[in-house]
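User: Can you recover a sequence for this backbone? Please restate the input before giving your answer.

Assistant: Of course. Working from this structure:
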């Protein structure tokens, strides 16, 4: 199966500007197509190491770019306010919440225009969440029962409602794609499993849970060392998910539609993490050591919110129950893997 999956994702060879290449660990979203020169996927700046995401339709381009720029402005205002250097400009209502959101979103380095396949496209330049990982495992999880935004046409709503029906309605989650390294039968070797949206659409709730276990190497941790590393991985993913949920519980600014969480970790660290991060003592002892372990795990485990082309002001200042439903389901799934 792994061989077939790898052969199925042979990338077309678009005409790219010098210094840029296709992003090898893209698992979902728009991609390059051999028969459609206008189709553009993620790029990587081979010098800077950041990811370039192509912006979509004009209205989506404006929303996504405005979102990233508003986060950057809020972070600047919050920092200036904290330093007591605000003069004429005052922090706008909600700036603190937007600034706090910034830690859960890939760093934004501005936007630029590039010619790809003889066509000009606008890209946002973002942090590469897999940078520094030897064997990056990546999963895109789309959040919420409702994935169409308030301006969607009736046809668009109907199309969206027919996608990922079971998992979306039961869990508020969709699985557009993932890739994961798994231990091979030969000791010391690995295989790469990769699946896209067709696989995700075929899943029921039980299949979704099973797939999550596979992705976290919880079903294949056949050594005590790797099993301990998987436990560290799951606890760190939970910590980051719970921080995002805490932000959503207090914010009343925005509603996110068709937005995803990107979960990344380095398979190569599963064994070494267990050896360098012994479990803290019980009853609250050595809390500082536990914090140190969490800090170390965050270097090779990253959970970030992505895809902001359909972010709208919150209706009547209401919380984003749609996103939180999916997020709480995801937390429950990860907890069930950890504590089973």
């Amino acid at each position: 199966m792994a061989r077939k999956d790898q052969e199925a994702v042979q990338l077309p060879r678009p005409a790219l500007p010098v210094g840029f290449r296709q992003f090898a660990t893209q698992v979902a979203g728009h991609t390059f197509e051999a028969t459609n020169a206008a189709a553009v996927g993620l790029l990587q700046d081979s010098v800077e190491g950041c990811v370039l995401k192509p912006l979509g339709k004009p209205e989506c381009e404006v929303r996504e770019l405005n979102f990233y720029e508003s986060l950057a402005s809020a972070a600047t205002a919050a920092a200036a306010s904290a330093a007591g250097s605000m003069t004429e400009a005052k922090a706008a209502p909600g700036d603190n919440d937007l600034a706090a959101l910034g830690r859960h979103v890939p760093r934004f380095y501005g936007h630029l225009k590039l010619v790809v396949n003889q066509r000009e496209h606008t890209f946002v330049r973002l942090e590469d969440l897999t940078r520094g990982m030897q064997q990056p495992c990546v999963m895109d999880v789309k959040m919420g029962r409702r994935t169409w935004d308030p301006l969607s046409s009736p046809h668009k709503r109907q199309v969206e409602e027919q996608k990922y029906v079971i998992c979306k309605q039961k869990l508020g989650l969709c699985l557009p794609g993932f890739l994961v390294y798994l231990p091979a039968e030969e000791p010391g070797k690995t295989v790469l499993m990769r699946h896209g949206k067709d696989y995700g659409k075929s899943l029921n709730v039980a299949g979704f849970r099973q797939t999550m276990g596979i992705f976290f190497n919880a079903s294949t941790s056949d050594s005590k060392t790797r099993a301990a590393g998987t436990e560290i991985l799951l606890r760190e993913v939970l910590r980051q998910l719970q921080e995002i949920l805490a932000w959503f519980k207090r914010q009343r600014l925005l509603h996110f539609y068709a937005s995803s969480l990107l979960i990344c970790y380095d398979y190569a660290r599963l064994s070494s993490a267990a050896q360098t991060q012994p479990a803290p003592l019980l009853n609250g002892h050595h809390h500082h050591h536990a914090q140190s372990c969490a800090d170390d795990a965050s270097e090779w485990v990253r959970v970030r919110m992505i895809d902001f082309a359909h972010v709208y002001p919150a209706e009547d200042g209401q919380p984003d129950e749609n996103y939180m439903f999916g997020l709480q389901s995801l937390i429950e799934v990860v907890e069930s893997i950890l504590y089973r």
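That completes the design. DSSP finds eleven helices and twelve strands in the chain.
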